[in-house]
Design goal:
By secondary structure, the protein is an alpha/beta fold. It has two domains: 15-244, 3-Layer(aba) Sandwich (Rossmann fold), CATH 3.40.50; 250-431, Immunoglobulin-like, CATH 2.60.40.1190. It is built from nine helices and 21 strands. An eight-stranded mixed β-sheet has the order 1-2-4-3-5-6-7-8, with helices on both faces. Strand 3 (45-50), helix 2 and strand 4 form a beta-alpha-beta unit. Helix 3 (112-125) packs across helix 4 (140-151). The two termini are 39 Å apart.
Length: 434
């Protein structure tokens, strides 16, 4: 018989909403409010969102649900003195006026690292892996993120800084950035504001995994990038996936009803592993992988308007070595919807010299078509004998690339800007045995 307390706990977990307001408290007693979003699937990590000055958690609406769909625990937090965290424990308004920032003893922004730590603790309590936690800050939210990472280095795995400042509202961000170390960070800024924060911080953050992206658009301070900078939401999500998800693994299950006809119906390949690749404007491409008796079968479903005359690529590596250079068991396969009447397959095989070479390969089957002028679907079957050693492990390594109309619209799974040359970031993929 199941104990009543255990049963009640299970029932409570089952009824937890996917998204809802949460109440928490900073270590100094300041009450806080936030909007928590549960991951849609097995969690990949946790993401804490910190807004700009005189803003609140609603500024993160363009991205918070997409982060949850990408399987992250997400908390959009109202910092003290903002939104629904505007009052202290006695119910008095929290003053966050600029006049208080002249004195470190009265500066409320120097206490906000406590807010961030409370948010991180909540994410871990909700199930986010403690070693995969990122803080995404905008404007002064960047300052709070760096301060929290300085005070609690083991609690912050990575950070995205949207228009950071040098010493915004009295928070010495350059000083805090010097302790960043080798953690991954992404700095985003307009060119016009880069000298006031992004460039000095990049110089202070000397780790190899710190990337800075300068954007030509004007008037895009902090979360004002959303809706103004094309693909910025997808770019942030992809970067977080690469920074936090270091041990991806795909399962290639056996499915019986597979048809190499370009169709992508729900009842075809039932039970196959499906991957969502975020594109521009909130759209997704879908990759489906499975195997039948003799073939690895990979399908794509991509918005035609996104693709136009560009292409999707799949990289398959079946060699036992870990070297990124192509080997005879490495394939780079391109599907192009430019002409639906043409066989949508160009196939390259790696050579001993470590380069891609177009070679004819028998037994490859492929099909592609545009349906309703809205989605482009394609499917390929690769003989497992071509990529798996006869008596070796049943493990492949995979990578996918979706090319949009412009260079900045390239999308990768796993997220990696190196894929157009040779994938240095692969996904180990276990092929189910018959």
């Amino acid at each position: 018989m199941v104990p009543r307390t255990v049963l009640l706990f299970v029932l409570c977990l089952a009824t937890l909403p996917a998204q809802g307001e949460v109440r928490l408290q900073a270590a100094d007693g300041q009450p806080l409010s936030g909007l928590y979003s549960a991951p849609k699937g097995a969690p990949r990590g946790g993401v804490l969102l910190l807004h700009m000055y005189r803003s609140n958690r609603t500024a993160w609406r363009p991205i918070e649900s997409r982060l949850a769909a990408a399987r992250f625990h997400v908390l959009a937090l109202d910092l003290r003195g903002h939104g629904k965290s505007s009052k202290d424990a006695q119910g008095n308004p929290v003053d966050v006026s600029r006049a208080l920032t002249n004195d470190p003893k009265t500066n409320p922004f120097l206490k906000m690292h406590l807010d961030a730590k409370a948010g991180i603790d909540l994410l871990v309590k909700r199930g986010a892996p403690a070693d995969r936690l990122a803080v995404v800050g905008a404007s002064v939210g960047c300052s709070v993120a760096l301060h929290a990472a300085h005070v609690y280095p083991d609690a912050v795995t990575a950070a995205v800084l949207m228009t950071p400042g040098i010493e915004y509202l009295g928070v010495p961000s350059v000083q805090h950035a010097k302790s960043w170390g080798n953690r991954p960070a992404l700095i985003l800024s307009s060119v016009e504001e880069a000298d006031r924060g992004a460039r000095p911080l990049k110089a202070a953050m000397t780790g190899e995994d710190v990337k800075m992206l300068l954007i030509p658009e004007r008037g895009i301070h902090g979360t004002r990038m959303f809706g103004r900078v094309a693909t910025i939401e997808a770019d942030i999500i992809e970067w977080l996936q690469a920074a936090l998800v270091t041990n991806l693994e795909l399962k290639v299950p056996v499915t019986k009803d597979l048809f190499i006809d370009g169709a992508f119906e729900a009842d075809e390949g039932a039970g196959a592993t499906r991957i969502a690749v975020p594109l521009a404007a909130g759209k997704n491409a879908t990759v489906r992988i499975s195997r039948n008796r003799k073939h690895l079968v990979i399908g794509f479903d991509v918005p035609e308007r996104y693709l136009r005359r560009n292409e999707v690529m799949v990289y398959v590596h079946g060699g036992p070595d870990e070297a990124p250079a192509p080997t005879p068991r490495t394939f780079k396969i391109s599907f192009s919807p430019a002409n639906p009447e043409r066989r949508p397959l160009f196939q390259w095989q790696g050579t001993e010299e470590g380069s891609w070479k177009e070679v004819p390969t028998r037994d490859l089957q492929a099909y592609g078509q545009t349906r309703d002028r809205s989605r482009w679907t394609a499917e390929i079957a690769i003989p497992l004998s071509k990529v798996l050693p006869e008596d070796g492990p049943n493990t492949l390594r995979l990578a996918f690339q979706v090319n949009g109309q412009k260079a900045e619209q390239q999308r990768f799974y796993p997220p990696s800007p190196t894929i157009p040359n040779v994938p240095k970031l692969w996904v180990p993929s276990k092929v189910a045995e018959l």
